[in-house]
Amino acid sequence: MEENQVKPFQKYSSGTHLYHAESSLEVRFGETKGFHSSCKLNIQEIENEDHTKNWLIEKIEEAPLPSENSFMEILHELEQRSYPVEIKVDEKGVFLHAADHKKHIENWKQKTSGIQEKYQNAEVFRSQYLTILEDEELFYKNKLREPFWNLLFFAPSYVDNGGKNQESITWNIKGIGNIECTGTINAEQRDYGFDAFFTSETIVPENIKEEINKKYLHQAAQYKAKLTIQMEYNSPKKQYSKKKADFTLSEGDKIVYREISSII
């Protein structure tokens, strides 16, 4: 069969594209705990002469933050004011760096300048947040921990020959670190474009295992990570219409950590 190289590369047509992002997390170290979050994402893309792209990303919360205390409200507002972010990615959609971080800092300063009038002692927390924001590497290390970024950056190329091909993704385990997930991907042509399926199973490296044990006060000798991603690509619209991932950590036959995320 003649090979047909499919290269979607996160290509967006002009204009704004709206996604609904959801993430659920279930942790089973001792007592089972569950978490859920959702938001909307507006994405605009500009293609540069060097084939890199600028993405302007706006995150819109779908539900207001429960008013637990003023400290949490202040941090939430400071974080929300850090959007939109404009980043530069390569032709595959892999993050390179901020597009204009100095401009972003000045915009954030302006948007948060009146927060001390709304909350007592807010200027202290604003100053602390600004210290992090001014360190571009640290700021994006923290920012990219949100689950939707894993799917947003995953735009593989592969040979559509009816078989399976090697692919990998760096998956961020929130609050733990990055793990390289190497596996296989295959595609099926559809009238609207194609469906793609990625599967990976790997033994968690020692440094990530230690971080998991430390965070969850556990003492496992080994963890296995399994990741499956299902994608639908719409060729006429030049965008993914759906991405859904299921990431698990297992100790022996027992799943101790499960994260399901999607952008639609």
Which terms would index this structure?
44% strand; 264 residues; alpha+beta; 6 helices; 22% helix; 11-stranded antiparallel β-sheet; two-stranded antiparallel ribbon
Beta content: 35-45%
Give me the number of helical elements.
6
Q: Round the Cα radius of gyration to an integer and report it.
A: 20 Å
Distance between the termini: 32 Å
Uncertain residue segments: none
Question: How would you describe this protein?
Answer:
22% of the residues lie in helices and 44% in strands. The protein is of the alpha+beta class and 264 residues long. Strands 6-5-4-3-2-13-12-11-10-9-8 form an 11-stranded antiparallel β-sheet. Strands 1-7 form a two-stranded antiparallel sheet. A hairpin with a 5-residue loop joins strand 2 (17-27) and strand 3 (33-47). Helix 1 (70-80) runs parallel beside helix 3.
Put the structure in a nutshell.
By secondary structure, this protein is of the alpha+beta class. It is 22% helix and 44% strand.
What is the strand and helix layout of this fold?
Blueprint lengths: L4 E2 L10 E11 L5 E15 L5 E9 L8 H11 L4 E5 L5 E4 L2 H11 L10 H12 L2 H8 L4 H5 L5 E2 L5 E9 L3 E14 L2 E11 L2 H10 L8 E11 L4 E13 L2 E10 L1
Antiparallel strand pairs: 1-7, 2-3, 2-13, 3-4, 4-5, 5-6, 8-9, 9-10, 10-11, 11-12, 12-13
Helix pairs in contact: 1-3
